[in-house]
Amino acid sequence: MDYKDKLRRIPLGILAGLTTLVLASGGSVAWFTWRAIHPKPPVATFPSLDTSPNPVLTLPEATDPGSPKAETAPPKQPTTEPVPAEATGQVYWVVDEGTGLKLVAQPIAVAADASSSDQVTAAFSNLLSKTGDPNQNAFTTIPEQTKLLKASVESDGIHIDLSADFQSGGGSAAMIGRLGQVIYTATAFDPAAPVWISVDGKPLTLLGGEGLEVSQPMTRSDFDQGFEL
């Protein structure tokens, strides 16, 4: 049997498969050969960009250089008036003018938050603890031993209670002078108020050995009209 006979005996299916394989192999070799000659260009890789919206920038408004610059006034701070720690009162002394006596005032400081009665008490404590005001050559006609027993401001006026020493010694001019000192000092914080004077708790009606009559109550105006220093 010759070669041709053997070739005829190969099944057609196998022959078809071999033919396909040869063609496929030839095609692959051709494709790789073409790729080697024509290489694939490199692909550039770009970084991903953030596509979120950009924040909006607000630019200051343009101002006219010739116009005055607006200034913002600072907010006003609430202010409160300070409460004074002290109030001013007066005590009264007498000055000898040669032809008679004259009442003169000396300023004193008392607690501003004190009651009216406490302010009058403070004024009398100052009056009865001194012999006068040397800056004015002023002196007191009230006896040194005199003490304040009580001072109070009531609805009907100012009440002053002094010890019995208030009535001792001195002539008529001294009696009038001490009465004026009491009336004016008691009304230092309320000049128009009436004053009630007591001695050892009893209303004062006569002052001194000469019996100087004292009306009750007595204001500054009453004293000025009824007595002459």
Description:
Strand 5 and strand 6 form a beta hairpin. 30% of the residues lie in helices and 20% in strands. The protein has 229 residues and is an alpha+beta fold. The strands form three sheets. Strands 3-4-5-6 form a four-stranded mixed sheet. A two-stranded antiparallel sheet has the order 1-2. It has a domain at 86-226. The chain is built from five helices and eight strands, in the order H-H-E-E-H-E-E-H-E-E-E-E-H. The termini are far apart. The chain is elongated. The protein has helices at residues 3-9, 12-37, 116-128, 172-186, 220-226; strands spanning 86-96, 101-111, 148-154, 157-162, 195-199, 202-203, 206-207, 212-213.
Strand proportion:
15-25%
Share in helix: 25-40%
SSE string: HHEEHEEHEEEEH
Strand order of the largest sheet: 3-4-5-6
Q: Key terms for this structure?
A:
elongated; 8 strands; two-stranded antiparallel ribbon; alpha+beta; four-stranded mixed sheet
What is the topology?
Layout: H1 3-9, H2 12-37, E1 86-96, E2 101-111, H3 116-128, E3 148-154, E4 157-162, H4 172-186, E5 195-199, E6 202-203, E7 206-207, E8 212-213, H5 220-226
Parallel strand pairs: 4-5
Antiparallel strand pairs: 1-2, 3-4, 5-6, 7-8
In short:
This protein has 5 helices and 8 strands, in the order ααββαββαββββα. The protein is an alpha+beta fold.
